[in-house]
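Title: Comparing notes on inverse folding

I've been comparing how different people in this forum approach sequence design from structure. To keep things fair, I'm posting one structure and asking everyone to reply with a full sequence. Here's the target:
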């Protein structure tokens, strides 16, 4: 960013930095307090908020992420004994996810997460502003050459490498 950088460009980069800083701080806090990544806590909280078992695709919709990304997080939560994966009583081909008793306790005690604040903030934008934001960010990811990649949940990649 040389002397040719526009004030709008700097404002955009500063906003991205602030958002990344907020998400990173929230992620570190959740890891320190619970030993789980912010993505894992977010999944637990979404399962708790649903009040009934969810399919992986329903959970992906609730977390505003791709099913493959949420499935990787769920796998770790199942391994940790916090989430139960079972066939539906009505349809055995349908997989349902629910919290174990330990998962319920962890979700209740979890700190508020920045992801929730970010989603609420984006959803509170007018439809026109939300569309402009989405288009601008999509164009940015295309220019960075990362548009085709399946996006992981926030900071889940870093947590996976650390484990």
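Reply #1:
Here's my take.
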């Amino acid at each position: 960013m040389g002397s040719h950088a526009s004030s709008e460009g700097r404002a955009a980069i500063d906003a991205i930095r602030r958002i990344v800083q907020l998400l990173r701080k929230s992620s570190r806090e959740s890891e320190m307090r619970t030993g789980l990544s912010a993505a894992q806590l977010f999944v637990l909280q979404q399962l708790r908020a649903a009040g009934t078992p969810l399919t992986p695709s329903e959970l992906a919709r609730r977390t505003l992420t791709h099913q493959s990304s949420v499935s990787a997080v769920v796998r770790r939560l199942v391994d940790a004994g916090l989430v139960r994966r079972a066939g539906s009583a009505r349809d055995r081909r349908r997989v349902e996810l629910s919290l174990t008793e330990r998962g319920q306790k962890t979700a209740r005690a979890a700190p508020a997460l920045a992801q929730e604040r970010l989603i609420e903030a984006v959803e509170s934008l007018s439809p026109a502003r939300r569309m402009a934001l989405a288009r601008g960010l999509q164009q940015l990811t295309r220019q960075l050459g990362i548009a085709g990649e399946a996006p992981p949940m926030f900071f889940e990649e870093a947590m996976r490498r650390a484990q």
